[in-house]
Amino acid sequence: MKLTAETILKGIAIALGTIAALMAAVELHRALEDERSAEPSAVVSDDPLRETLQRCRSLTSEALEADTQCQAAWEENRRRFFGTSTDNSDTE
Length: 92
Description:
Layout: H1 5-42, H2 48-57, H3 61-66, H4 68-82
Helix pairs in contact: 2-4
């Protein structure tokens, strides 16, 4: 294979395109990481249930099973989401 100016320029163009794509991917990854790290502190709420659920999300499954406050918070969150009443007399 004979190296001509045209094939060398094509190789350089491909290499520069690859480098540009990699740099864009790295910047996108950094931006997403910054956004994820800023997300919990950006959530400002006067709802104590939301604060409790935020804390409970960081627990391991073993710790979550032992934490009755988290279990109650998740139950309240389900009740709010599905709009069910606190008494279960309707289901019997």
